């Protein structure tokens, strides 16, 4: 065809780092994939049973359900999160079920971001926020989390990565439409403190800005840290969309069930997008998520709760990975939440600055390619999670995923032991 094919909204967003790095890893024999964020173990038994029940029980679950969510699911989400957020949540007006948290984010951006609107994104950020802003015609405005120097002898921790309050305030203008928050944060694992959230909340209120908060890792918080939803702070429910994911909540990323919670004044616009695009999400998956939440509601806060057991297990995986990475001279930044950690590769950058790759290719990308090929380990370069002008500040970090089972962690250990032996003089 002679005509221009692709819509202009796709300009500049066609490259996807995941496709590139997953392909690279698949081309090498025997690579341990610690890049992508999905569990490689079975979901909890109650979730599997809920799914079996959904596909073998009521045959009407094979059919469409309500466009904005299967009623038992919207009902349990309303009651479960209503208690956590301290809000009376109406299942019909304040809840929308979407195709994963990705679907929730896309619906929110399409519903609220207009041509020329500014959207503040905290970096490092989950990589889809930038293209989703651009596709909606918005202008991403980035503000970076920066590490303060670790205390002597202490390992670096994601809690020491903070926003500079003056810089943050300077990003808000009369054109700012939305602030994108992600806590616990991917890729850093930072859990925003109450004080940090209060600052964001006051700026959003002062500048009449909507807060889109991605809280898919809300149950994965370690070391006694506490997840706080910004929508629970005074005056924030009215201007906040809170996004969650069944995939991350119950270790079922393939089910692709997500949700958005928020005030009707915002949600009605998301419903317009939803009913004119996706319209409807898989009924059986929604039924299985509803039953899983009903089970969790009964066990909430008790040792039998998955939301108690899962973070304990994942914290052990985190600690295992930290120790193993340290053994070869990598310097992990200890995450307080999520299932990712980033690790500092500066020492390698100093020792072997000339890894193969284009001169303008960020070092972390070259390092990951080298590591896949030579060490049989896959991670994701952190420059993937920052805006292009800021890549040079983050190109000495790579991200590992630790939501992995024992055999994968053992396979990682073997690779790292071999690496360590090669480092010996
Ligand atoms: C921060 C964050 N938000 C959203 C998603 C997407 O979640 P879902 O699989 O439910 O679409 C992910 C997945 O990796 C994520 O890390």
TrEMBL record:
<dbReference type="InterPro" id="IPR051326">
    <property type="entry name" value="Kynurenine-oxoglutarate_AT"/>
</dbReference>
<keyword id="KW-0456">Lyase</keyword>
<dbReference type="InterPro" id="IPR015424">
    <property type="entry name" value="PyrdxlP-dep_Trfase"/>
</dbReference>
<keyword id="KW-0663">Pyridoxal phosphate</keyword>
<dbReference type="GO" id="GO:0070189">
    <property type="term" value="P:kynurenine metabolic process"/>
</dbReference>
<feature type="domain" description="Aminotransferase class I/classII large">
    <location>
        <begin position="30"/>
        <end position="406"/>
    </location>
</feature>
<dbReference type="GO" id="GO:0047804">
    <property type="term" value="F:cysteine-S-conjugate beta-lyase activity"/>
</dbReference>
<dbReference type="GO" id="GO:0016212">
    <property type="term" value="F:kynurenine-oxoglutarate transaminase activity"/>
</dbReference>
<dbReference type="GO" id="GO:0005739">
    <property type="term" value="C:mitochondrion"/>
</dbReference>
<dbReference type="GO" id="GO:0047316">
    <property type="term" value="F:glutamine-phenylpyruvate transaminase activity"/>
</dbReference>
<comment type="similarity">
    <text>Belongs to the class-I pyridoxal-phosphate-dependent aminotransferase family.</text>
</comment>
<keyword id="KW-0963">Cytoplasm</keyword>
<dbReference type="GO" id="GO:0009617">
    <property type="term" value="P:response to bacterium"/>
</dbReference>
<dbReference type="GO" id="GO:0005829">
    <property type="term" value="C:cytosol"/>
</dbReference>
<comment type="subunit">
    <text>Homodimer.</text>
</comment>
<protein>
    <recommendedName>
        <fullName>Kynurenine--oxoglutarate transaminase 1</fullName>
        <ecNumber>2.6.1.64</ecNumber>
        <ecNumber>2.6.1.7</ecNumber>
        <ecNumber>4.4.1.13</ecNumber>
    </recommendedName>
</protein>
<dbReference type="InterPro" id="IPR015422">
    <property type="entry name" value="PyrdxlP-dep_Trfase_small"/>
</dbReference>
<keyword id="KW-0032">Aminotransferase</keyword>
<dbReference type="GO" id="GO:0030170">
    <property type="term" value="F:pyridoxal phosphate binding"/>
</dbReference>
<dbReference type="GO" id="GO:0042803">
    <property type="term" value="F:protein homodimerization activity"/>
</dbReference>
<dbReference type="InterPro" id="IPR004839">
    <property type="entry name" value="Aminotransferase_I/II_large"/>
</dbReference>
<dbReference type="Pfam" id="PF00155">
    <property type="entry name" value="Aminotran_1_2"/>
</dbReference>
<keyword id="KW-0808">Transferase</keyword>
<comment type="pathway">
    <text>Amino-acid degradation; L-kynurenine degradation; kynurenate from L-kynurenine: step 1/2.</text>
</comment>
<dbReference type="InterPro" id="IPR015421">
    <property type="entry name" value="PyrdxlP-dep_Trfase_major"/>
</dbReference>
């Amino acid at each position: 065809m002679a005509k221009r094919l692709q819509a202009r909204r796709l300009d500049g967003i066609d490259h996807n780092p995941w496709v590139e790095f997953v392909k690279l890893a698949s081309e090498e024999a025997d690579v341990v994939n610690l890049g992508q964020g999905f569990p490689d173990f079975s979901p909890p038994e109650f979730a599997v049973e809920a799914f079996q029940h959904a596909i073998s029980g009521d045959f009407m679950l094979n059919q469409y359900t309500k466009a904005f969510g299967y009623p038992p699911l919207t009902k349990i989400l309303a009651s479960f999160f209503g208690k956590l957020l301290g809000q009376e949540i109406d299942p019909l007006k304040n809840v929308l079920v979407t195709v994963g948290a990705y679907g929730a984010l896309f619906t929110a951006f399409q519903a609220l971001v207009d041509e020329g609107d500014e959207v503040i994104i905290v970096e490092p950020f989950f990589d889809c926020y930038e293209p989703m802003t651009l596709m909606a015609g918005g202008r991403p405005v980035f503000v970076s989390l920066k590490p303060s120097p670790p205390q002597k002898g202490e390992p670096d921790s994601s809690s020491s990565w903070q926003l500079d309050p003056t810089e943050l305030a300077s990003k808000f203008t009369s054109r700012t439409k939305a602030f994108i928050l992600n806590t616990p944060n991917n890729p850093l694992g930072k859990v925003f403190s109450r004080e940090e959230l209060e600052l964001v909340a006051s700026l959003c209120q002062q500048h009449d800005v909507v807060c889109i908060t991605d809280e898919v890792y809300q149950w994965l918080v370690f070391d006694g840290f506490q997840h706080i939803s910004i929508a629970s702070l005074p005056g924030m429910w009215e201007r906040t969309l809170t996004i969650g994911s069944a995939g991350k909540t119950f270790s079922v990323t393939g089910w692709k069930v997500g949700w958005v919670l928020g005030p009707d004044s915002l949600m009605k616009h998301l419903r317009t997008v939803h009913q004119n695009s996706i319209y409807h999400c898989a009924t059986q998956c929604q039924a299985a998520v509803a039953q899983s939440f009903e089970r969790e509601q009964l066990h909430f806060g008790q040792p039998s709760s998955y939301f108690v057991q899962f973070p304990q297990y994942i914290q052990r995986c985190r600690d295992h990975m930290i120790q193993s990475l340290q053994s070869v001279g990598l310097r992990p930044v200890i995450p307080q939440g999520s299932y990712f950690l980033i690790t500092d590769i500066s020492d390698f950058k100093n020792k072997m600055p000339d890894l193969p790759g284009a001169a303008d290719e960020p070092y972390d990308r070259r390092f990951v390619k080298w590591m896949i090929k030579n060490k049989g380990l896959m991670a994701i370069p952190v420059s993937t999670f920052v805006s292009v002008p800021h890549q040079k500040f983050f190109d000495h970090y790579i991200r590992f995923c630790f939501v992995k089972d024992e055999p994968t962690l053992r396979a990682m250990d073997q690779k790292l032991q071999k690496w360590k032996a090669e480092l010996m003089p």
